[in-house]
Design goal:
DNA repair, DNA-3-methyladenine glycosylase, DNA damage, EC 3.2.2.21, single chain, 8 strands, MPG_sf, about 20% strand, alpha+beta
Length: about 290
């Protein structure tokens, strides 16, 4: 019989009166937060004890990425993406939604049928390689290569944890016409939005994420909340034979998820198993 799971004591959360990451803040919470802490809509950064500095979470190395595409897409949920800006400020956001693109027979993949082009070369590089491509001539999407010929995981949505004001300014700077206010949960709730918010563009393509000086992943900062679960749903905007394959994964109930699939939430077999942490973060799988 496996040993009982150890539960961590409740963590203090910066800038919020209560609730879990991704939940709607109370009326007393600030609607925006400083770049050094958390709080606001959808934030979930943690405060160190008074008078002490929080230890830096471990950077995820090559071994973490060296796994098949679908397990990697699940394992990425809950991990923290860190972006160090040219001025030295660090932005942090928790991965809450991913999509797996398997290559080969996956008709929705840029590498379907083994297709290799200068654009998708990163998909055939070692696991952990960044694949950043441009859409509509102005937006970017960020992927991470995995095991498998031409396989990669799309980062679809993030939950901002640190540096929300800098993210907001980066987003607004790229808007055309009138600019309104962006709430924290709106900063990274889409693949192109998160690239804007983190200042990620084509210059990051084919770079090694585990060793990059300005973009990397840290292990998740907390164990899963009991009410959280992993949803497996069809990918967004896909047509053809693979349109209904459940290759999109997201954390149920997180406000930063780009598209909620109620049908998948009701019928997903992944929801029938209680969540359990594996490796260094919040990755879940069905038994």
């Amino acid at each position: 019989m496996p040993a009982p799971r150890k539960r961590r004591p409740p963590a203090r959360v910066c800038g919020r009166a209560g609730g879990r990451p991704g939940s709607k803040p109370s009326s007393s919470s600030s609607s925006s937060s400083s770049s050094s802490g958390g709080g606001g809509d959808g934030s979930g950064s943690f405060c160190p004890p008074e008078g002490r500095s929080a230890p830096a979470p471990p950077r995820l190395g090559p071994a973490f990425f060296d796994q098949p595409c679908i397990p990697l897409a699940r394992a990425l949920l809950g991990q923290v993406l860190v972006r160090r800006l040219p001025g030295g400020e660090e932005l942090r956001a928790r991965i809450v939604e991913t999509e797996a693109y398997l290559g080969g027979e996956d008709s929705a993949s840029h590498s379907r049928g083994g297709r290799r082009t200068p654009r998708n070369a990163a998909m055939f590089m070692p696991p952990g390689t960044l694949y950043v491509y441009q859409i509509y001539g102005i937006y970017f999407c960020m992927n991470i290569s995995s095991q498998g010929e031409g396989a990669a995981v799309l980062l679809r949505s993030l939950e901002p944890l640190q540096g929300q004001e800098a993210m907001r300014q980066l987003r607004l700077a790229q808007r055309k016409g009138p600019t309104g206010t962006l709430k924290d949960w709106q900063l990274c709730n889409g693949p192109s939005k998160l690239c804007q918010a983190l200042g990620v563009d084509k210059t990051f393509d084919q770079e090694d994420l585990p060793s990059h000086p300005f973009l990397w992943l840290e292990g998740a900062q907390e164990v899963p909340h009991e009410e959280e679960a992993l949803v497996s749903a069809p990918r967004v905007g896909i047509s053809g034979d693979w349109a209904h394959k459940p290759l999109r994964f997201y954390i149920q109930g997180n406000r930063c998820v780009s598209a909620v699939d109620r049908k998948a939430e009701q019928g997903s077999p992944l929801l029938k198993q209680p969540p359990s942490p594996i490796t260094l973060g919040l990755a879940w799988r069905a038994a």
